[in-house]
Structures are given as C-alpha cells and as structure tokens.
Design goal:
Blueprint (H helix, E strand, L loop, with lengths): L2 H24 L3 E2 L12 E2 L10 E7 L5 E7 L6 E9 L2 E3 L2 E2 L8 E6 L5 E6 L13 E8 L2 E2 L3 E2 L10 E6 L5 E5 L9 E5 L1 E2 L2 E2 L3 E2 L9 E7 L5 E7 L9 E6 L10 E2 L10 E7 L4 E6 L12 H8 L8 E6 L6
Antiparallel strand pairs: 1-6, 2-25, 3-4, 4-5, 5-6, 5-7, 8-9, 9-10, 10-11, 10-12, 13-14, 14-15, 15-18, 16-17, 19-20, 20-21, 21-22, 23-24, 24-25
C-alpha cells in the first residue's frame, strides 16, 4: 500500500470516528412510553418502567406548556428523595434526570406557577441561615436559562419550625399547604394563605367541611379555586391507609362537605398526592397499592421478580380521566 493511500485511509477513519462521536454526544436517550395527552378511560399506571418503577415515585407536576414534567423519586425506603424531570424534545420525552437544584436534601412535592416559570416544592434543607434546621418548609425556584435558580424559602409567616408540605396555588396566587398548627382542627390539616399586595398572609385552616380531627394532607387546588382534592386518614368512611376526597365551592363560595372518591381510585393502601392536568382532563395520584397475590412462591427468582416489579407496593403514579371519578 502506498504511503499516500495509507494516509488517506487514516484521515477518513479519523473523520468518521469524529462524526460518530459528535452524533453520540448530540443524541439523547428518549422514550415514547410517557403519554400526557390522551385521557385515560380507566385507571392506568403512568409511564410504566420509565416513571413508575420498582423505586418510590410520587408528586407529579406537569408544566402549563405541557413540555415538561417533574415528580419525586425516592429509594425504596425514601431515605433519599429527589426532584426528577423529563422534557419533551422534538415530540419525544427525554429520560428522567435529577434537577440540578435537587439531590442533596430531601426534596418533594413540586408545583408549577400558572405560567410555568416558578417551581414550588417542599424540602428539609437548612432554612434562614440556620444549619440546625431540618424540618420541611416550602421553597420556590425561578426558571432561568433553561434551568432553575437557587431555591428561596417562603416567608416565616408560612414556614415555621414544624413541617410545611405540599404547596398548591390557584391562579390568583392563594397558597394551600399541609401543616400541623395550634390553630388547626386535627392532627394534620390543610391551610390556606391569601396572596395580597405581593405577600402571603397569615395562613388559616380550611373549615370542617375539609379538616377533621383526623389527618388531612396533600391538597390540590384547581386554578379557579373552586375544587379541592386531598387525602385523609382516620375517617369512618376510609378504605385503608389514606383516601382521596373532593370538595367543591357552592354558589356562596363555601366549601361543601368533602366526599370520598370511592373505589375507582382509593384502595386499602395509601392513596394521595393528587394533581389534575386540565388540558388532557387527566387526574393523577400516587398509590402504594399492589396486586393481591396469595400464590405460593417456589423459587428465589420468582421472589426477586416480584420485588423488582413496579407493583411491589412502593409508590407509583397513576392516572385516570377526571370525568371517570366518583364525583
């Protein structure tokens, strides 16, 4: 082989290698198994093997633009919980990735502002420059340069030295969240803080149509602020480890007596973390349900397969059309 021909082959291989490398760098793993546009006619495990996996998933939020979603992903025992996101690029969803603002502390329960440019969530990260604090508080981060700014804690009128959870906001900015306070009714209650003159006001517990002497928690408020969906544990009409309930405002603007959403979504396990995507009319929630299996296990492989299934009893995210609920 001539020296010129040899050099030509080397150059061609070098160019081909570089082109392949650049292509690989540009390519992103994507998935088509995540569907947020189709209304579910029945209870459906959301994003099986992508979002709903053998790990613990909960707290879904979908951006108003419909091109991003964020949820909480935890290990099996939820000793570590992170905010994970997917974005829709060229019609397909990217693989789940941990938000850069998350991963160090326990970050849970994301909620987008009405324009999608602010993300609220709960976290046990140190607050107000007090490194001894590890209680849960409500934080927010603003969208900047295709990412999120350093989180900022809400004012101490909201965040106390006890836990505050599950932020949800109406279009007018009123904040609904879970807390245990002396002004509450039960062991854990849902509070609302009105947003006036650019500030959150003193939180007040929702009335007895919502809060009871039992546990009420994780409330979703719709944009118009006339539908509230939440979880409760310890009520006489409960089906198990925590059920989803709904209340609507009447013509006078008062909350009506809350109603159990029934066996369509509630199980004998914990059912909670409600969210509604009104564009698709899908209702999302988290459940620890798993199929009843009384069969004898004869092989270790079978036990491992059950343990490593999304339906192993750890949290998963489900969806169903809102009009299919027992309202």
């Amino acid at each position: 082989m001539s020296k010129t021909k040899y050099i030509t082959i080397l150059l061609l291989n070098f160019i081909l290698f570089n082109c392949q490398t650049k292509t690989k760098k540009k390519d992103k793993p994507v998935t088509n198994t995540v569907n947020i546009t189709t209304t579910a006619n029945q209870l459906t495990l959301f994003g099986e093997h992508v979002i709903s996996t053998p790990l613990y998933e909960r707290d879904l939020a979908i951006s108003p633009q419909g091109n991003e979603l964020i949820y909480t992903l935890g290990d099996y025992k939820q000793n570590k919980r992170c905010l994970v996101y997917l974005t829709k690029e060229e019609g397909v969803w990217t693989e789940p990735r941990i938000l850069k603002i998350s991963g160090k502390y326990q970050d849970i329960e994301p909620f987008y502002s009405n324009n999608g440019n602010r993300l609220y969530f709960a976290s046990n990260r140190p607050i107000y420059n007090d490194t001894t604090r590890n209680d849960y508080n409500i934080w927010y981060s603003n969208r900047v340069n295709n990412g999120w700014s350093n989180p900022v804690a809400l004012d101490s009128i909201i965040n106390t030295k006890t836990d505050e959870y599950y932020p949800s906001l109406s279009h007018n900015g009123n904040l609904y969240f879970t807390a245990t306070k002396a002004s509450g009714i039960g062991r854990e209650d849902i509070f609302m803080s009105e947003f006036e003159d650019g500030k959150f006001q003193t939180p007040k517990p929702l009335p007895e149509a919502i809060n009871t002497t039992a546990f009420e928690f994780n409330a979703y408020i719709n944009p118009e602020e006339n539908i509230l969906i939440f979880s409760s544990f310890g009520r006489s009409d409960g089906l198990g480890g925590g059920d989803l309930y709904i209340s609507r405002k009447d013509s006078l603007g008062q909350w009506t007596a809350s109603k159990n959403l029934g066996k369509t979504v509630n199980s004998d396990k914990l059912d909670y973390c409600p969210f509604v995507d009104w564009k698709s009319n899908n209702f999302y929630f988290t459940s620890e349900r798993k199929p009843l299996n009384n069969n004898k296990i004869g092989h270790v492989k079978t036990l491992k397969a059950l343990s490593n299934s999304p339906l192993n009893g750890y949290g998963n995210i489900y969806k169903i059309g809102f009009d299919k609920l027992e309202l």
